[in-house]
Amino acid sequence: MSVKRDKKHVKVTFNAPVVLIFAIICLGALILSLITNGKSDSMFIAYRYGWLRPATYLRMLTHVFGHSGWNHFIGNMSFILLLGPQLEERYGSKKIIWIMAVTALATGFIHLLFFARVGLCGASGIVFAFILLTSFTSFKEGELPVTVILVALIYIGKQVYEGLFVDSNISNMAHIIGGTVGAFVGYHWNKT
Q1: What pLDDT score does 162 carry?
Q2: Domains held by the chain: number
Q3: Inter-axis angle of helices 93-114 and 54-62, to 10 degrees?
Q4: For 87-114, what is each residue's pLDDT tens digit?
Q5: What is the C-alpha R_g of the chain?
Q6: Interatomic CA distance for residues 19 and 88, integer angstroms
Q7: What residues have CB less than 8 Å from 61, skipping those under 6 apart?
Q8: Distance of CA 8 to the CA centre of its chain
Q9: Which residue in 66, 70, 26 sits closest to 45, CA to CA?
Q10: Rounded distance between C-alpha atoms, residue 148 and residue 135, angstroms
Q11: CB of 104 within 8 A of CB of 61?
Q12: CATH number, domain containing residue 158
């Protein structure tokens, strides 16, 4: 949100509409979960009922709106609200919707393919897509900035390590897939 000042008034603007609406939907899903004591969570968790059931495919997209609690929500929204407006300003709202949807579908599909009995929720795949996409903003064709290499090593490397050696309730696979989507798209959107 940006604030414009003139001599008499301060105007609050609704910048980055896609990012802000996404954050509002996620907040609404979390509040709905709290109000219904978790009964609404099934709308926002990707798990496989069966490949012939339409809800399976819908949840591949909607799992990014659900979060397991305030800490999960705040962690993801902090990054999305920090990185998203810059990305939306640079690439436009349609491309940001596209990368969010592709990341949601890719993480949801791969999760259901390999971890069908475990639920997946949260926007951390989108967070990692945004992190890697942001690192490509100064990319020029024929060059590979050291910052891109370091971001990939730090963020993706950490997820690979934790996925192999740390027992947690975190979907490192979603982080890796999101980061991969962000890197791939960042490379293609920024080559000149």
Answers
A1: 76
A2: 1
A3: 130
A4: 999 999 999 999 999 999 999 999 888 8
A5: 18
A6: 8
A7: 101, 104, 105, 108
A8: 39
A9: 66
A10: 5
A11: yes
A12: 1.20.1540.10
Separation of alpha carbons 16 and 149, rounded Å: 28
Provide the domain limits for residue 147.
2-190
The helix/strand/coil state of 28 is helix
63-67, 69-73, 118-122, 141-145: least confident range: 141-145
Contact 44, 66 (CB under 8 A): yes
Other beta carbons within 10 Å of 140:
10
Is 39 a residue whose pLDDT tops 60? yes
Burial degree of 117 (CB within 10 A; 0-12, 13-18, 19+): exposed
pLDDT at 89: 95
Q: Which two tokens stand for residue 97?
A: 């919707």
Q: Three-state SS for 65?
A: helix
